[in-house]
Amino acid sequence: MATRLQFLKMNGLGNAFIVIDARKTKPQLGPEAVRALADPATGPGCDQFITLETSPDGADVFMRIHNADGGEVEACGNATRCIGRLLMEETGKTQVSVQTVVGHLLARGAGAPDMVSVDMGVPKFGWQDIPLAEPFEDTRAIELQVGPIDAPVLHSPSVVNVGNPHAIFWVDKDVESYGLERVGPLLENHMIFPERANISLAQVHDRGALTLKVWERGVGLTNACGTAACAAGVAAFRNRLTDRKVLVHLPGGDLTIEWREADDHILMTGSTELEYVGEIDLDDLSWRKLGVDAQENAG
After folding, report:
1. Structure pTM?
2. How far apart are CA 52 and CA 30, in angstroms?
3. 39-74: per-residue pLDDT in tens?
4. The pairing of beta strand 154-155 with beta strand 145-146
C-alpha cells in the first residue's frame, strides 16, 4: 500500500471536511488517525472525515462519515452536498445518488456550479426513532430544561431524527446569548438521548427565516450543520412557527430548507467550496497542500 494518500479539503458554509477517495485503495485510518487529522493543531482540521467507497447497492458512491472525535455517524447534510458536487463534476451527471449507512440521498445541481440541493428524505418523529430513553407522545416539545425549575434558561425542545438525532430549543433572544458552548456538551450527553444528540438554538424571525446555532454531536460548535438546519426547518413548521420553506441563517452562511408537502421529503440547498488538494503521509500522518485544482492533482 502506498505510504502517501491524497485528500480534498472541502466545506459547506464553513462546515469543514477531509475527503478521502477509497474506491480504488483501502487506506486503514482508525479513530486515532481521524482525530489527529481532524485536529487543526496536528492535521488539516475538519468537522467530519469523509471516506468515499464503492456502493454495494448501485449508488454513485458510498459515503462513510466520521466525526472529529473519530466516531462513525449516520448522516451529514453539508458533506452530502459537497460529495454530490464532486460526483457531478466527475461524471457529468446533473443528479447523483450518495449512499450512507442509513440510505440513499439524491444530490442535484442548483444553478451556480457551487450550489447543490440534496433530498434528505423523510424525517422521523416517534420517540423510539429519534431515539429517546423514555416515551413522549408529542415530540414537538419534550420535558427537558436548563436552569431553575421556575425560570429555565432553555426548555421544551423539539426533537426529530433526520438521519441522526436532533434537539432544537426555541429562543427569543439572539442565539449567542445562551452560552451553547457551556450547555451543549451536557445536553448532547443527557440521559434522555441514548445515542447522544445534536443540540441547536433557534430564533425564528418570521414565517420564512430563522437563525440557528449548533452544538454538533462529536464535534462541538460548528459553522454550519446541514441536518440541524433540516431538523430546525421541519420542527419550526410542525410548531406553526414558519412555512414549509425557510431560510436558515448559520454562522457560516445560509441554507434553504423546504419540507415538501407532496411526499414529506426535506430538500436542502446551499453552497459548497473546494479549498485545496492535499497529501497525507500514512507512516507519520504528516501532511502538505498540493494545490487548489482537484483535476490538476488527480491520480
Report:
1. 0.89
2. 15
3. 999 999 999 999 999 999 999 999 999 999 999 988
4. antiparallel
Sequence-distant (≥ 6) Cβ neighbours of residue 104 within 8 angstroms: 57, 59, 97, 98
Q: What is the DSSP letter of 141?
A: S
Give the H/E segment covering residue 12.
Answer: strand 4-12
If pLDDT is split at 50, 70 and 90, which confidence band does 3 have? confident
Cell of 207: 414565517
Instruction: Report the C-alpha gap between 213 and 178 in whole angstroms.
Output: 10
- Rounded CA separation 224/221 (Å): 9
13, 212 contact by CB (below 8 A) = no
Q: Using the predicted structure, report yes or no on whether residue 296 has a pLDDT greater than 70.
A: no
Closest to 88 (Cα-Cα) out of 64, 66, 63, 115: 115
Residue 2 has pLDDT above 70, yes or no: no
Model confidence band, residue 181 (pLDDT cutoffs 50, 70, 90): very high
Burial class (CB in 10 A: 0-12, 13-18, 19+), 141: middle
Is-contact 104 57, C-beta < 8 A?
Answer: yes
**Residue 259: CA atoms inside 13 Å, Cβ hemisphere, count?**
22
Report residue 72 as a C-alpha cell: 462513525
Q: Are 277 and 8 in contact (CB under 8 A)?
A: yes
Reading the block at residue 120, the C-alpha cell is 434528505
Task: Give the separation between CA 115 and CA 108, rounded to whole angstroms.
Answer: 9
- 13/115 Cα distance (integer angstroms): 11
Question: What is the predicted pLDDT for the residue at 284?
Answer: 92
CA neighbor of 202 nearest in space, from 175, 222, 177, 228 = 175
Other CB atoms within a 10 A radius of the CB of residue 122 amount to 14
Provide the grid cell at 194.
441514548
Which positions are catalytic?
Answer: 76, 225
CA–CA gap between residue 65 and residue 102 (Å, rounded): 11
